[in-house]
């Protein structure tokens, strides 16, 4: 449950705001880049590596424990994310897609882990870097397999479209493939985690203030409402966190497929 609170006056409740996303170095005088989100990213990487190692380092014929969990995740990513877009090329890209899915999922779930309580994707730099990595792979595959001219032609060509219409259509579809797709990839994830974190912080601060800080007969009901809303939103947020990890990995598979096939 989110418990981050901003109190600027001892007698007045103040709702949390953008200061939730502004982090100082983890220790005084430390480098500016070494902040809480960076530590969470490192911790998330350790968790993903540890889970995959525990699941696949010594596979047994009959999966149990961590191997069962690992195989379930692998099957889900292969069947629901990789194969719909990549088809016969799915297995070649499973390592990357599984890593992306698990990484984003752990990033998101950090928002509801006690003490940590910050979804890394709510800091725009991290989903941007991940999306840029997929973007570079997409463009590289497109140029490598089809050449610059062939790749651009595959993107722009639309059967039956009159020649004069390409003057309007080509700039739009090129902007979609090379600009809009990148932004939609990371902004969707960032916006959902940002808004979810802010909402949880808001309602939990209401509950904390009106129950623990300034308990009054009139404020008690508002405090209880804040607690109940925090619990309900935490459950909803868990679903959204999984959904956003799925969508991010699914878009990654679609973009990789577009590079391989030379189309949009």
UniProtKB/TrEMBL annotation:
GO terms for molecular function: proton-transporting ATP synthase activity, rotational mechanism. The keyword Ion transport applies. Key component of the proton channel; it plays a direct role in the translocation of protons across the membrane. This is ATP synthase subunit a. The keyword tRNA-binding does not apply. It holds the Pfam family ATP-synt_A. Its main location: membrane. The chain crosses the membrane at residues 38-57, 93-116, 122-143, 189-211, 218-236, 242-260. It is a multi-pass membrane protein. PANTHER family: ATP SYNTHASE SUBUNIT A (PTHR11410:SF0). Belongs to the ATPase A chain family. Keywords: ATP synthesis, Cell membrane, CF(0), Hydrogen ion transport, Ion transport, Membrane, Transmembrane, Transmembrane helix, Transport. SUPFAM superfamilies: F1F0 ATP synthase subunit A. Signal peptide: none annotated. It is found in: Cell membrane; Membrane. CDD domains: ATP-synt_Fo_a_6. One of its GO terms (cellular component) is proton-transporting ATP synthase complex. It comes from the Bacteria.
